[in-house]
Amino acid sequence: MGDDRAGLAGPATEDLLRRFLDGRPEATARAYAADLSDLARFLGTPLPQALATLLGDPTTAARLALDYALELRRRGLAPATARRRLGTLRALLATARELGLVDWTVVPPGEEEVEAALERSQEPETPYLFPRHPDEVDRLDLQHFALRETLGANFLAPVESPVRVLDVGTGTGQWGIEVCWEHPEALVVGFDLVAGRAEHPSGYRHVRGNLLQGLPFREGSFDFVHQRLLTWGVPVAAWPGVVAELVRVTRPGGWVELAEVTRPQQTGPATQAFFDLIHQHLAVPLDLDVTDIVFRSLDEYLRRAGLEEVARREVVLPVGEWGGQVGTFMATDFRTGGARLCEVMQTRSSSLAEEAKGLLSQAMDEFDQHRTIFPVAVAYGCKPA
C-alpha cells in the first residue's frame, strides 16, 4: 500500500489517495490500489499523472472512463471485474469531490453505452464533425422540428403515395418515422452510421452504413430519396459523387431532395468569432465546406446528376427567443451543438477549447439583439423516366 502512494507528486493527489485507501478493509484497499495501477498502465503513464488526467475536467474524465471501459471489454475481463474497476474510478472521484479537488461528478458508462461505443469503434472513420453524444438525440430532433415547422411539411418534392422511401443520414430517424405515419403504406429506410430509435413503426427499417462508401441498395430501388444537414459530414470534393449515388438508387420518375444550412447571418462578433474558430481548427482539416459552396450548389448538383424539374427554395430559421418556438428550438440546438464542438476542440487544444466555450457563452447573448438567422436551402428534382 505504501509503495502505491510513494510515487504521487504533489500533496493534493497524495492526500486524495491516502484518504481514498485508508480505513478500508485490507482486501478492499489492495483491490482499489490494483485497479488504479491498472488505469495507469492503460494510460501508459505513472499513477500520479493518471490521477491528474482523471481529475482534469468532467469531459476528460467521462471520455477516459468510457475508453477504459472499452479496453476492459476488449481484454475479455469478467463483467463483475470490469464493473468493480469502473466503480473504483467513481469512488475515487467522489472522494476528490469531498476534498474539494473537483466540484463535479462523473458516472461511469453502463453496459448499453459501452456496447454502443464498441460498435462505433469498429466503424470506418468518417469526417462527421459532431461527436456522438447522448444529447445529440435531442439536438437532432430539435433541428427536425424547427425545419418541419418552417417548411410546413417534412419535404417539398411533389411526391405522392411513395412505396419505398430512403432517408440518408437519418440521425435519430424522426423524419423517417413521421413519413411512415404520413404514408402508412410505404416502406421507409433510414440509412446512417449508427442506429436510431429502438421503437419505430412497423414500416420503418434502419440500415447501417457509410454513405462515403456507397449505398448498399440496387439501382432504382426507391421512389423518393431524402438527405439533409450533412455539410459537416461530407467533404466538399465528395458531394457530386454522393448526389450521383442518391440518384442511382432512385427509380425513373422518382424524386431526390436535399436540404442544407449555411453559416448564420445577422450575427454578433462573438458568434462570428466562434464559427471562425470552429472552421479553422475543425472543419478545414477535415476538408468540410466552410465557404458555402455546398449550400449554393445543391440544385446544380442535382442537374449535373441528370435530374429534371429541379427546383430550389430558401427559408430562414430564426435563432433566439425573438423567433418564437422555432427560434427557441434553434437557440437550444446552437448551445448543445456548440458544446459538442467545444468537446472536440478540447482534444486539439485546451486553450482553444476554453476560447471556444467563452465565445459560445457570449454568442448566446447576441441572438435576440441581432435577430440571428440560419438560412436553409431545399432543392429537389425528378429522375427521367
What is the CATH third-level topology name of the largest domain? Rossmann fold
Overall outline: globular
N-to-C SSE string, H for helix and E for strand = HHHHHHHHEHEEEHEHHEHHHE
Give the name of the CATH architecture of the largest domain.
3-Layer(aba) Sandwich
Assign the structural class, choosing from mainly alpha, mainly beta, alpha/beta, alpha+beta, or little secondary structure: alpha/beta
pLDDT averaged residue by residue? 87
Describe this structure in words.
With 385 residues, the protein is α/β, with parallel strands linked by helices. The protein has 2 domains: 120 residues; 247 residues, Vaccinia Virus protein VP39 (Rossmann fold, 3-Layer(aba) Sandwich), CATH 3.40.50. 51% of the residues lie in helices and 15% in strands. The chain has a 7-stranded mixed β-sheet, sandwiched between helices. Helix 9 links the parallel strand 1 and strand 2. Helix 2 crosses helix 6, helix 8 runs antiparallel to helix 13 and helix 10 packs across helix 12. The longest helix has 25 residues. The radius of gyration is 24 Å and the shape is globular. The termini are far apart.
Key phrases:
disordered N terminus; seven-stranded mixed β-sheet; Rossmann fold; alpha/beta; about 375 residues
Write a compact overview of the structure shown.
The protein is α/β, with parallel strands linked by helices and 385 residues long. The protein contains 15 helices and 7 strands.
